Amino acid sequence: MTTISFSADKIFDVVALGRLCIDLNANEFNRPMEETMTFTKYVGGSPANIIIGLSRLGLKTGFIGKVADDQMGRYIKSYLEKENIDTKNVVIDKTGAVTGLAFTEIKSPEECSILMYRDNVADLLLEPLEVQEDIIANAKVLLISGTALASSPSKEAVFLALEYAQLHDVKVLFDLDYRPYTWKNVYETAVYYNLAAEKSHIIIGTREEFNMMESILNEKCSDEETANKWFNHRAEIVIIKHGSKGSIAYTPNGESVRSGVFEADVLKTFGAGDSYASAFLYRIMQGGTIEDAMKYGSASAAIVISKHSCSDAMPTLDELEEKISVGTYKQI
Ligand SMILES: Nc1ncnc2c1ncn2[C@@H]1O[C@H](COP(=O)(O)OP(=O)(O)O)[C@@H](O)[C@H]1O
Ligand SMILES: O=C(O)C[C@@H](O)[C@H](O)C(=O)COP(=O)(O)O
């Protein structure tokens, strides 16, 4: 029964670094974007969604990022504050950069896509010197997302944050969060992803995301082979997600745990990964076993995919535990 240990006596449980954006989710379902006329605005961006989920579950959280100096940037910052997330390291851009937008298309519960507007976005302008070492030093976990590696100076800011994490005994969770349109080519992407994964303790991604990381050496790895590569570095848990077929977690001692999924009344599929990551991390930080934490992650995902938003739909602990006790969990 594997558990994972975290430093005690830190001010923050989890600090996330990366993009803070706006989701514009289609109000009209089961139709293509061309025919969608209205959208509802939410705070979005994978690390933002995950940290909101963690804060709702009661953890002490903070964010390291950069927002546009406009109405959208102010909306994002005040939403984080309302959710009890520390924003003292959320920097306001002064170059005229804009807020990234993600329009979502809900063609059917199984057929969802995202149309992203990410030219000159503020989140990718976070400078290394803007990352406050003391925030990371005072956290048990640093959460990073792959999209922040897509360009400079944000990429260097992530790697400096990883150095601070190593220096101050902070565990790193790397959510791969691969968004192809943010990147120039797969070689650049895979090189930086692999460098960040070497410095991470918990790595979570879909099979497709790991395939991207392996593609430059023409590797075709099984889930187990994929996971084993990272145990030569710092990894203590590697999770490979398979959508509605659940996920598999691996540990360095050769243990593997396959999770089931909770039955869900699916409205849209996006948000599954972010809610899964937040509830998984919450439970593992409470001393739960991997199996237990995967159940929490799966339950949170089932809740969020049945609702309209990602961030705003993140469950409280009561809602999550209710789902775990009354929901139907299908072992796969
Ligand atoms: N259709 C579904 N029904 C129930 N649970 C789901 C469904 N799709 C995804 N999930 C849950 O969400 C988790 C993450 O989903 P996945 O699609 O693999 O991630 P991502 O959103 O990052 O692509 C899965 O491991 C599973 O627990
Ligand atoms: O990450 C984004 O910028 C968009 C998200 O806010 C979004 O809604 C989404 O795609 C969630 O991703 P997932 O949890 O990996 O499905």
UniProtKB/TrEMBL annotation:
Residues 13-316 form the Carbohydrate kinase PfkB domain. GO terms for molecular function: 5-dehydro-2-deoxygluconokinase activity; ATP binding. One of its GO terms (biological process) is inositol catabolic process. Pathway: Polyol metabolism; myo-inositol degradation into acetyl-CoA; acetyl-CoA from myo-inositol: step 5/7. The lineage of its organism: Bacteria, Bacillati, Bacillota, Bacilli, Bacillales. Keywords: ATP-binding, Kinase, Nucleotide-binding, Transferase. It catalyses: 5-dehydro-2-deoxy-D-gluconate + ATP = 6-phospho-5-dehydro-2-deoxy-D-gluconate + ADP + H(+). Catalyzes the phosphorylation of 5-dehydro-2-deoxy-D-gluconate (2-deoxy-5-keto-D-gluconate or DKG) to 6-phospho-5-dehydro-2-deoxy-D-gluconate (DKGP). This is 5-dehydro-2-deoxygluconokinase. Coiled coil: none annotated. Gene3D superfamilies: 3.40.1190.20, putative 5-dehydro-2- deoxygluconokinase. The gene is iolC. Its EC number is 2.7.1.92. Belongs to the carbohydrate kinase PfkB family.
